[in-house]
Design goal:
heterodimer, A: about 325 residues, alpha/beta, Rossmann fold, Alpha-Beta Plaits, 6-stranded mixed β-sheet, 11 helices, about 35% helix, about 25% strand, B: about 280 residues, mainly alpha, about 70% helix, elongated, binds adenosine-5'-triphosphate, binds magnesium ion
Chain lengths: ~325, ~280
């Protein structure tokens, strides 16, 4: 399997701000890489460099084995980009937008016309095809934006926060579309702030913070780094939290985390589902009442917290 | 979810390299032109302003400014045409400044299109807008008593010369637009240079009414020679003859000025566009 996108030592500065500080990454052909990071981490900057919109101050980037700095136009023929901000014209209709993009890819007219119809159908925009984008909802506009980046059937697709602002239903639809594309062999690099999105779509995840990759691996590998499973207990009443912690001490493999607002006690454990039974037994014999109990794997949120010291979405711009 | 019709790989169209610049430019121009019927307000205000100008100048100053060899209204129209086409180029300034703030430019930059196309498209759509505005003005002019005396072919040549001049001005406007931080600034800064360009000329008064130093500036202002060339082609009064080459050979000087403007500002604007695309 060859490498579709590779970056070595990428550096990009804006005046005093260092947006990228020696980023390395590799995306094998036909796989999905999730670029995860808080606001201002440098995700968009990285995507813009890969997609030939920006030139790096230092480092080497190859897309489809083409040097991005030397032959940007050759790269542009094989990529599709859905940027963080909609790259569509508000005054044109959905169909006109797609046909304009097809024309600018220098594709044959008849072919573009068919392709536009196909994409409008795929993204459930047939009804709205001949209306100006001004009349589209945010989700429709996002779908058209993605469709526009697919007009030339690019082998490599860049998606910068593709589902930000979509309702849950539209997110699921968009995920399905991306999964179809990957099944057809497309290589995808997507940035996201949603950990469940990376979890579901990405084969490989690169966590970046302040312009540098701070962790890389599959979502399972990243979770293993943070430790094993956790038992999460939701108490019926606040005053039992301390008792629950005490009762669970016998099975805990580390210190418990108590969240009074949520009435939860979380303890790290080893031993899979057997520990859940064990936990139920000790809590029952202590006469404690629960609203809920669950065994869960660490989420990417846990990963994020332990790697960056701050949560994925609450972090500050440029922090 | 998918239809079976297009399973084949994308088919690439073929064309010589320079041909793509025009192909891509025209696609970008169409994008701008398609907007016109959909946002009728653009038309309303683009047309109402020059029409008001014609009526104001014709009726307010019509009697106050004497022109040798004919009526002031006949003298005035070529000047109004040129002024309107000059201000028309500000569309490019505002349009490009607007594009620069939007995601659509990132889309264009990620496509394998000709790098001059975004600017060429804007300046081209200005010609089409200009032509439509001119047609309305010509009919307004005819309504207030302006006439074409030298036949249709020469009148068409006059309009063509003016549109070519407008196209050249649009490249200056494009270059300015690419420096604008946002559309608000573009809306004012895009117009500033057009006031001296259109007023320091023979558009509204004959050149001999200026003090000597201003007269020299106005005489060498290419807009003055375009206006004079049009007046001659329409067979309208031209005012008393003044000055050297620009006013004795107005047609040649106009063409020369257009070519020089294009030679300077096409590369400047395209280079600036490329630079701003690699922020
Ligand atoms: N044009 C610019 N001029 C100056 N600074 C910039 C510019 N673009 C980005 N930056 C800075 O570079 C850093 C990285 O920005 P970038 O947009 O890549 O972050 P991001 O990870 O995409 O963030 P978000 O999740 O908010 O989209 C930020 O500190 C940002 O302020
Ligand atoms: Mg971003």
């Amino acid at each position: 399997m060859s490498t579709a996108i590779s970056a070595r030592g990428l550096v990009k500065r804006y005046g005093a701000v260092t947006a990228l500080d020696g980023l390395d990454l590799d995306v094998p052909e036909g796989t999905v890489l999730g670029l995860l990071g808080p606001n201002g981490a440098g995700k968009t900057t990285a995507v813009r460099i890969f997609a030939t919109l920006l030139t790096a101050d230092a480092g080497e980037v190859r897309v489809a084995d083409i040097d991005v700095r030397r032959e940007p136009n050759k790269v542009r023929r094989v990529i599709g980009l859905t940027g963080q901000y909609a790259g569509v014209d508000e005054n044109l209709t959905g169909r006109e937008n797609l046909e304009m993009v097809g024309g600018l890819y220098h594709l044959e007219r008849q072919w573009v016309r068919h392709r536009a119809s196909e994409l409008l159908e795929r993204f459930a925009l047939v009804e709205a095809a001949n209306r100006p984008l001004k009349t589209y909802s945010g989700g429709m506009r996002r779908r058209l934006d993605l469709a526009a980046s697919l007009v030339a059937k690019p082998a490599i697709l860049f998606l910068d926060e593709p589902t930000t602002g979509l309702d849950p239903r539209s997110r699921l639809d968009l995920w399905a579309v991306i999964e179809d594309l990957v099944a057809e062999g497309t290589t995808v690099l997507l940035t996201t702030q949603y950990l469940d999105e990376a979890d579901r779509l990405a084969d490989d995840i690169v966590v970046i913070d302040q312009g540098r990759a701070i962790a890389q691996g599959s979502s399972d590998e990243l979770k293993d780094r943070v430790g094993g499973d956790r038992v999460e207990v939701v108490a019926r009443s606040m005053d039992q939290l301390a008792d629950i912690e005490k009762a669970l001490a016998s099975i805990a493999r580390g210190s418990a985390v108590i969240d009074p607002d949520q009435r939860t006690v979380v303890v790290p454990v080893t031993g899979g589902t057997g520990t859940l039974l064990e936990a139920l037994r000790v809590l029952d014999s202590a006469g404690l009442h629960l609203d809920d109990i669950a065994l869960r794997r660490p989420t990417l949120d846990d990963v994020f917290l332990s790697l960056t010291g701050h949560a994925a979405q609450a972090s500050q711009e440029g922090s | 979810m998918t239809s079976p019709s297009v399973s084949a790989e994308p088919t690439r169209a073929r064309r010589p390299l320079w041909g793509w610049a025009f192909h891509d430019g025209w696609i970008v121009a169409l994008r701008d032109l398609r907007k016109l019927p959909r946002v009728p307000e653009i038309w309303f205000f683009a047309l109402i302003q020059p029409v008001i100008f014609v009526l104001l100048f014709a009726f307010v100053f019509g009697g106050a400014i004497p022109v040798e060899g004919g009526s002031y209204r006949e003298f005035l129209m070529a000047g109004i045409f040129a002024q309107t086409i000059g201000f028309n180029s500000a569309n490019t300034t505002v349009g490009l400044a607007d594009d620069l703030t939007k995601g659509i430019l990132d889309r264009f930059r990620s496509l394998p299109m000709s790098s001059s196309a975004v600017v060429l498209g804007r300046t081209t759509s200005d010609i089409v807008r200009g032509l439509i505005t001119l047609i309305v003005l010509i009919f307004t002019g005819l309504a207030v008593g302006w006439r074409i005396h030298n036949g249709l072919p020469k009148a068409v040549l006059a309009v063509a010369l003016l549109l070519f001049f407008g196209f050249a001005l649009s490249w200056i406007a494009a270059w300015i637009g690419l420096y604008m931080p946002n559309t608000e600034v573009a809306n004012t800064a895009g117009l500033i240079w057009l006031f001296p360009l259109t007023f320091l000329s023979n558009s509204f008064v004959p050149l001999d009414t200026y003090p000597a130093w201003l007269q020299t500036i106005a005489e060498w202002n290419p807009l003055s020679s375009v206006v004079l060339a049009m007046r001659q082609l329409f067979g309208n009064p031209v005012g008393p003859p003044v000055g050297g080459f620009p006013q004795t050979q107005p047609f040649a000087y106009s063409l020369l000025a257009c070519v020089v403007i294009l030679l300077v500002f096409v590369p400047l604007a395209v280079r600036k566009y490329r630079r701003s695309s690699a922020r």
